């Protein structure tokens, strides 16, 4: 095995080829889920942190011309900002697309009066669930609540989730719910990571995008991708994404590879522009 093969042994050959092709696009946007993709999953969401190798590769990517990086998470924007360390020049999308910080000064979630009313009904219903299932951890989000059951015995988690679905569904008509890994989320605003990807594409004017995600809610983002984009499922589970890596370690390899390929491509573009300038000077002397 060569040194190069060892460094990228978590990347399947077809993905390697797709990444090299992606690196040659004119405006690149790299969008990444946070938990389970950059950060290994942990019992306490507040303790999740990116793998340092992925963090470093993201710093390299955002320093390049015509290259943007966005984190697209189910976390509330503030929570995403805290755990990600809010890396400079990285765009942040929270609450599955209900909250944005795209560096243009417009931050936060906009809710209608009806949605605000639904949010207070939802709060009441969530308090009811927690009084019956005190081991469930509640995360408040700007447009809803997430009920975390990670680390609880399977039957306790199941009972709590069933109770939550039934009681909250009855109490708050129109509430949307989505199940993730050991989490059940309720929101009064309809938004998906697919909406987030569409908005991101418009904002960055990307000619091609990469999206990597590990959970069921990431399927909306994969489905919103277009020909020439690259969708990467991280870990087990069925997916519409054509590419797959096994772990957050493999994500680090993938991002390092992409950063290197992108840098080399841009250096090549800059060098050929210099050659073109030099030859036009050489021939333009009359
Ligand atoms: Mg995730």
TrEMBL record:
Its cofactor is Mg(2+). GO terms for biological process: trehalose biosynthetic process. GO terms for molecular function: metal ion binding; trehalose-phosphatase activity. Its EC number is 3.1.3.12. It comes from the Bacteria. Keywords: Hydrolase, Magnesium, Metal-binding. It catalyses: alpha,alpha-trehalose 6-phosphate + H2O = alpha,alpha-trehalose + phosphate. The keyword Hydrolase applies. Pathway: Glycan biosynthesis; trehalose biosynthesis. NCBIfam families: HAD-SF-IIB (TIGR01484), T6PP (TIGR00685). Removes the phosphate from trehalose 6-phosphate to produce free trehalose. PANTHER family: TREHALOSE 6-PHOSPHATE PHOSPHATASE. Belongs to the trehalose phosphatase family. This is Trehalose 6-phosphate phosphatase.
